[in-house]
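In this section we walk through a basic example: taking a raw amino acid sequence and producing a predicted 3D structure, encoded as discrete structure tokens. The instruction is simple. Fold the sequence below.
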Amino acid sequence: MRTATPDIVTLLDPRPGSTVELEPGDRLCLRLRGTLGASRWHLAAHPGNLLPLVQEATEVTFLAFPGGEATVRVERRRPGHATASDVREVRVVVRAA
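The resulting token sequence is shown next.
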């Protein structure tokens, strides 16, 4: 049974193509594997109904609003390089309020 309090859904090092279902008001936290070198994770694309709240080296947190299904994409890149060395895409479904 779901409570009236919004949930925080955390995905640890999500596999490419993962799917998560949220309710409006939930938070989605993506925790990504850290790197030893100079490469860093970057938020490459996110739908308009997911508002980024936190963008750190290994974590991105969003607040979900109604808006259906979309994809969040994060890429790991070295400074000065346009090509990503690792890509994570997560399909996000925000159910209707």
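Looking at the output, two observations stand out. The CA atoms of residues 43 and 74 lie 5 Å apart. The mean pLDDT is 89. In the next section we compare this with other chains.
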